[in-house]
Amino acid sequence: VFGLSSVAQVVLGRGDFGQLLSINLGFGIGVTLGIHAAGGISGAHLNAAITLTHCLLGNLPWRKLPAYLIGQFLGSFVAAATVFGLYYDALYDYTKGNFTVTGPTATASIFSTYPAPYISLQGGFFSEFLATMMLLLGILVIHDEKNNGALRGTQALLTGILVVGIGLGMGMNTGYAINPSRDLPPRIFTAVAGWGMEVFTAGHHWWWVPVTAPILGSLTGVLIYKLFIDFHNQPVLEIGKEKGQPAVEIS
Question: Where, by residue number, does the polypeptide cross the bilayer (predicted)?
Answer without folding.
Answer: 20-44, 65-88, 125-144, 156-178, 205-225
